[in-house]
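Sequence and fold
=================
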Amino acid sequence: MYRTLAPAHPTHFMTIPASSATPPIAASSWQRLLDWEPQSRSAWQRFTVAILLTLLAAWLRVALAPAESGGRFITLSLAAALAALYGGFSAGMLSTLLGMVLINFFLVKPYLSFAFDNPGEAFWLNLWHLLTQLVVVGAIWLMQQRNQHLREASELARISQQRFLDTFEHASAGISHVALDGRLLRVNETFCRMVGYTADELLSMRFQDLTHPGDIDPDEKFIKQALAGTRDSYALEKRYIHKDGHTVWAHLTVALMRRQAGLPDYFISVVQDISNVKAADEAVRTNERLMRQAQALAGFASWEADIAADRFRALSGSFQRLGLPGAELTGAELHSFTHPKDQQRLVQEWMDAVKNTGAYNSTYRARIDGTDRWFSVRAEFERDAEGRAVRAFGVTQDITERKRAEHQVRRLNTSLEQRIQERTRDLKAAYDELESYSYAVAHDLRSPLRIINGFAQALDEDNPALDDTSRNHLQRIMGASKKMGLLIDGLLQLSQIGRGEVTCQPVNLSAIATRLLEELTAESPQRSVSWSVEPDLHASADPSLVDALLQNLLHNAWKYTATTPQAHIRVFAREADGQTHFCVSDNGAGFDMSRADKLFQPFQRLHQPHEFSGLGIGLATAQRIVQRHGGVLQAEGAPGQGATFCFTLPGEASPDSLP
């Protein structure tokens, strides 16, 4: 077991074994005796012990030798001393007075009678004993008071030393004690973390071992000046080499400590890590360089203006980018460069900005070296307490090339608009012609189909003697004509979807979907299909077209759940990419996503005719309706796991929305 001693000299530290002092048991006993505090016991405890000690001493005196043999006071003096050691001055004097009573009245028979024949002798003996006990008890009391003061002083010294150690170890800055030859005598934890070494490693090193080679000479120069007496302290910024090799910037403050005789003793170094500050300064310098380069590349010129003196000064040589003759010009000189058509407007805008509290932002033309150039200028003002503009800070950019490009773009836009209008007229004419053609073709094909179907039906009815093969041929003719009629109806439906105006108004999709599903349920009572419609699905769309859209999607879902044991159809909405997507989902046959590109093509089907009936026109019609509203129709699914069709429509307009 070792204990650390901190002697008066602050630069030396040593450890000594505790066993080299007084043997532990004896030292402990004496220490407890010396450190005894009578005040730590209550008064009744101290007085009780004093009485018991006195009675015990009297009993021993009588038991060991007759009281008449003399030395009565000496026996009870020991009890008073022990009582004083235990209970302090009051307990010692109580034992003394009680002992005097016992000596005079209880140690010699007959008891309660005065033990002395000669009153004078008794007086002097009792007086001498009282004075002696006062001296003994008082000395013990003074010793205890002195020990208590010493303990308090020692505790204050210990607390003071602990506070110093706490301050040293837990300071936010690194602290080290350095010998005159550069050896590190003591370091705190902050300094250890700063340089990455442990305290034991640092105590075997010199400060030069940690310092960047380029910063050793300035440090040693200041140390020599301090040792020569020309300075007592110094401060500098230096670099330390961290244990892992990187550089640590620090602000170092060093003070020289001297002995009482004035001789140099050691240095106290306070080290503040400023690596972040240095990094920030370097970032600022880098940003300034980049800013200058950016201004040069973008053609920016920064400037400041003295409003009262009406003088403008370009910063960082940026006047050359503007083609101005110098860095500092008066307002009149700048005015002379402005194009005559812009002079009055520019002056008025500048005066308005100076008087108001806003920024200045304008464009103007200037004639420099005989050439008209366009500039964009923006400025902000520094104002006094009364709001008057004192200074202005601004940026000017040469936008001549941009203005030329804008002029060229306007010319191109004008010609492009004309060409677009012409192409739009041509496209509209072609589209109208195609729509009329498809409608006419579909309409004109109905008459031949009716004739074919009618004659086939007449042959079937008027010739009951036809054989089975001929009758089968007639049935196939009538089936094909019926299918072609359905195809023509699909073409007409597509043609009608693409014609006419789209009139948007608030539409309740939940109500339409519920009505359509109820109709499907009534038409197929043998089907067991569960369905759900999310309430309050609203959009702004053409009601008739939306009705047709939902009818196609719901018929599609109803058809492809025909072979599903527990069929379910759901109509709901979800948010994606900031838009509301209205969805129709089922758990039916589904489809292969690799063939999804054929879903919305007219007359294209992903299932065989014997599996599910249909013409392949419903989804194409649904997509045409969604596109006419400016929306998107998407599908997702998997074979045997159902399909989900989602579309977007304009949201329902609120009463206070802007047009």
User: Anything to note?
Assistant: The mean pLDDT is 78. The longest helix spans residues 400-462. DSSP finds 18 helices and 20 strands in the chain. Residues 165 and 410 are 79 Å apart (CA to CA).
